[in-house]
Amino acid sequence: MQLKMTWVMNLTHFCIFKNLYLIVKKILRNLRSPAYQLVFETAQKNWGLIAVNLTTNLLNALLEGSTVGVIYLAVSYLSTPSEAQADSQIMQTLTTLLPLPPEQMFLVLIGAAVGLQILLSLSNYTNKVSAASLSAKAQPYVTGKVFERTMAFSYGCVSRYKVGDLVLFANDAALAVDQQITQFNNIAVSLSFAVMYLIVIVRLSPVLALAAALLTLAVALVQYKLIPRLRYVVHRVTETQVESAKYITESIQALRLLHTFGMQRKIVEIASHLLDKTQEQLQKRAYIFYLPEPIMDAVPMIAIGVLAILAVLFQGTEMNILPMLLTFLLVLQRLSARLKATVSSITMFVDNSARMFRLDTILSRRDKEFEQSGNEPFVGLKNDIEFQSVSLSYLNDGAFALKDLTFTIPRNRVLALVGESGAGKSSIVDVLMGLYRPTAGTILVNGKPLDDYRLEDWRQHIGVVSQDTFIFNDSILENLRFGCQEASLDEVMEAAQAAQAHEFIIALPDGYKTVVGERGYRLSGGQRQRLALARALIKQPGILVLDEATSALDSESERLIQRALEQFQKDRTVIVVAHRLSTIIRADEILVLDQGQIVERGCHSVLLRQDGRYARYWKIQSNTVTA
Fold first, then answer.
1. For the chain, which domains are there?
2. Distance CA 271, CA 241 (A)
C-alpha cells in the first residue's frame, strides 16, 4: 500500500511540475514582451499595493491553515478519550493553559476558529481591494500608453492600420491588463491555499493524503490536456472578433456612402457572415473553457469515496479516526474549491493570452516607423523653401510618387501645383508637412534641413485646407479654435468672415455654439470647407497650403473667398494645389507635374505662350465654362 501511494504521489508530482514547468516557461518567455514590460512598469509605480497584496496573500494562507488546525483540536477534545489526550502534546499544553472541561474547551476553540475566520475575511477583503486598486491604476495607464504609442507613429506607419483596428487596440488594452492582474492574483491566492491544505492533509495522515494526491493529479492532467487547445481557440476567437469589429466600425464611418450606393443589405450580409465565424469560434471556446468544471465537480466525490474505503480499512487500529476524518473532509472540500479556482484562473489566463498578444503587436517596435523630429525650434520662415533632388516612395517598393524634384518655394509668394490625379501634387504637400520623409533628397528651410527642426513647431506655422475636411462632433467655436486654443471670440469671428462662413454660422439656432454632429454631417460640403478655411486662417500662419480649398463652393462663394485670400496672402508663403486653373492665374509661379516630375513651370501667361500641357488644360476648362 505504501509503495502504491508513493508511486501515485511521484506521478502526481511529475504531472504537476511538468504542467507548471510549461506554464512558467511560457510566462517567462512572455515576460520579456512589451505588453508585460508595460504591466511591470505599472507595478513598479504601485509597489505599495503589490506589497499589501503579497502580505495579505501569505496571511490568508496562514489564517486558513490555523483555522483548520483549531477545528481539528476542537473535534478531538469531544471525541478523544482523556487518556489519549494526555498523550497529545498540543492538547496537554492547552489543558495546562486553560484547565477547562472538554465541552467548554470545545466552545473556546470554536470561538477561536470563528475569530480566525473573521481575520481571514478582512485580510481577504484587503487582498482583493489591493488587487482591484492596482488594476484600476493600470487600466487607464496602459490605455494611455497605447494611445501615446499610436500618436508617436509616423503618419505613413499609422495610415497602414484601419481605424477600427486602432480603436480596438486602445479599448482592449485595459481589458487585457485587468484580466492579467486579476488572474495573477487569483492564481497566487489559490495556490497558496492549496499548498497549505496539502500540508495539513499530510500532517493528518500520509496515507489519507492519497485522496488529495489523486485529486491534484486529476487537476494537473486536465490542465495539461486542455491548455494547448484552449490557447489555439482563443487566438482564433480574437482574430474573428477583430475582423468583424473592424468591418463594422468602417461601415459605420461610411454610412453616407452606404446609403448613397444602397449597399446596406450587402454590408449587413457580409457582417453577418463575419459574426457567424465569430459565433462558431466562441462555441468551440465554450466547449473547452467550461470542460474542467464538471470534472472538478466529480473528482472530489470520487476522492471522498476513496477516503471512506481507507477509513474502513483503518477502523481496526487504535487510532481514533473520527476527528481526522471530519477534519480531512473539511480540508478536502476546501482543497477541491481552491484547485477548481486555480483551474479557472489558469483557463482565464490562457483565454487572455490572445489579448496580450494583440497588445504586444501595437507596443512592439518591430516593423514600426516613428515620427522623427529635430531639436531646433522653428520661429518663422525667413528665406525660401528649397526642394533639392527630392524623391518619395510611399512603400519603398520602387514605385515613386515624386522623382528627383528640385524647385524653390519663394518666401511671401504664391506657388501653384497643377497636374492630373496622381501627378504628385499632394505628395509635395505631404513631404512639406513632414507627414512622410523623402526617400531621397533634402528640403531646406531657412538654409537648414527640415529634419533639424521640431516638427510640432514647423506645423504650427503652417495652415492647411485640404479636400478631406474633418469636422469634430463639437461646437463650431471649438472646431474653429482647434489649431489655436487661445483665440478669442472676436478673432474667431474675424477669420470666419474672411472665409465667408460667418453669415451661415449666425443663422444657425445656436450660432457659434452649434454642435455640428459626427464629421459635421449637419453642414453642407461647402459649409464644412469654409469652416476648415477659417480654422486655418485663425492661426495666422506664415505658410498657407490650399489643397483644392474652394472645390466644394459655388461660384459666388468662391469669388468672395478668393478676394479674401488675396488680402490674406500678403506677406505670406502660399502653396496652392488646384484643378480649377481660374483660381491660380495670379500665382507667382505654376509647376505642372506629371508622374512625380516637373514638366512645365512659369506664370500663367508664360505657360499659355508655351502652348504645352498647361495651355491644353486651360483650353479644355475654358471651353467647358463657355459651353
1. 20-363 (1.20.1560.10), 411-440+448-626 (3.40.50.300)
2. 11
Q: 126, 141, 80: which is closest to 105 by C-alpha?
A: 80
Helices 2-31, 34-45: inter-axial angle, 10-degree rounding: 90
Q: How far apart are CA 531 and CA 136, in angstroms?
A: 40
Q: Which triple of cell numbers denotes residue 151? A: 500618436
**How many CA atoms lie within 13 Å of 132's alpha carbon, on the beta-carbon side?**
6
pTM greater than 0.85 (yes/no): no
Q: What is the DSSP letter of 517?
A: -
In DSSP terms, 391 is beta-bridged to 440
Q: Which residues of 531-562 are buried (b: 16+ CB within 10 A; e: fewer)?
A: bbbbbbbbbebbbbbbbbbbbbbeeebbeebe
Helix 321-351 to helix 353-363 angle (10° resolution) is 40
Distance set, CA 485 to CA 86, 462, 477, 510, 572 (Å) = 85, 16, 10, 20, 22
**What whole-number distance in Å separates Cα of residue 352 and Cα of residue 205?**
39
CB 443 within 8 Å of CB 449: yes
Distance of CA 614 to the CA centre of its chain: 50
89-144 confidence digits (pLDDT tens): 555 666 666 666 667 777 777 888 888 888 888 888 888 888 778 877 877 888 88
| CA 453 – CA 461 distance, rounded (Å) | 12
**Rounded CA gap, 227 and 25, in Å?**
14
